[in-house]
Amino acid sequence: MVQTPTNPETISIELPSAIALYVTPEQFEALSIANRDLRLERTPQGELIVNPPIGGESGARNRSITGQLDRWYEEHEDLGEAFDSSTGFRLPNGADRSPDASWVRRERWEALTPQQRKGFVPLCPDFVVELRSESDSLIKLQAKMQEYIDNAALLGWLIDPQNRRVEIHRPGVEVEVLEHPTELSGEDVLPGFVLNLRRVWR
Questions:
Q1: pTM metric for this prediction
Q2: Dihedrals phi, psi of 109, to nearest 5 degrees
Q3: With the CA atoms of 176, 182, 185 and 190 taken in that order, what torsion angle do they form, in degrees rounded to the nearest 10?
Q4: d(CA 125, CA 144)
Q5: Cα–Cα distance between 58 and 171 in angstroms, integer?
Q6: Which helix (H) or strand (E) holds 194?
Q7: What is the CA radius of gyration of the chain?
Q8: How many Å apart are CA 32 and CA 45, to the nearest integer?
């Protein structure tokens, strides 16, 4: 009689890019818990997206962005909650996404149950930032930004350090493209927030 080990050894396999792996929301949560060193995302169709750890330059840029957002948040805590890149959101369309930085209005956050706040947050942030790393596809990031807007985000920044370009995404209007900007305004979504891009471009 063959017995199945109670703690099977973990093995690794390589998946060619042409092969998609589909998981349920429950499976995705289990994978995310077991692989905390990876940034995992899931499309509305259930396709698993594995984002490896970013390099040093991208990490420093992301730290600058989240640090500046956090300083603004500390002075405007009554307006909402800010999050870093490790936070997962389950969008209304069923996708699981983790923006590089994000923010949710206070009334929307307070409307969630304590249990909902502990797991993948079941809403789309009001504000999102995606920072393009050298390995990121610009087309895929643009599609992700449109997905955020389609799921009720009010403001999104796609920051592309390679080209020193920023795309500003807003609902109901054309995408605004800024070439070599030095700062970005949080507009009326994050009143008073100004992101200094000089630290991001260097």
A1: 0.85
A2: -65, -45
A3: 120
A4: 13
A5: 28
A6: strand 194-196
A7: 18
A8: 17
Tens of pLDDT, residues 86-109: 899 999 999 999 999 999 999 999
Side-by-side strand order, sheet with 127-131: 80-83, 101-105, 127-131, 155-160, 165-169, 176-179
Length of the chain: 202
Tokens coding 4: 């199945």
Query: According to the model, what pLDDT value does residue 10 have?
Result: 62
Q: Do 34 and 42 contact (CB within 8 A), yes or no?
A: no
- The fraction of the chain above a pLDDT of 90, given in percent, is 63
| Structure tokens that stand for 57 in this block | 């330059």
- Token look-up 């209007």 returns 173
Nearest residue to 156 via CA among 74, 89, 71, 78: 89
> Which residue segments constitute the domains of the chain, with CATH numbers given?
54-201 (3.90.1570.10)
pLDDT given for residue 30 in this prediction: 87
Nearest one of 112, 123, 116 to 89, comparing CA atoms: 123
User: Which residue in 47, 48, 24, 25 sits closest to 38, CA to CA?
Assistant: 48
Burial of 42 (0-12, 13-18, 19+ CB in 10 A): buried
User: CA 124 from chain center: how many Å?
Assistant: 10
Contact assessment for residue 101 and residue 68, using Cβ atoms and an 8 Å cutoff = no
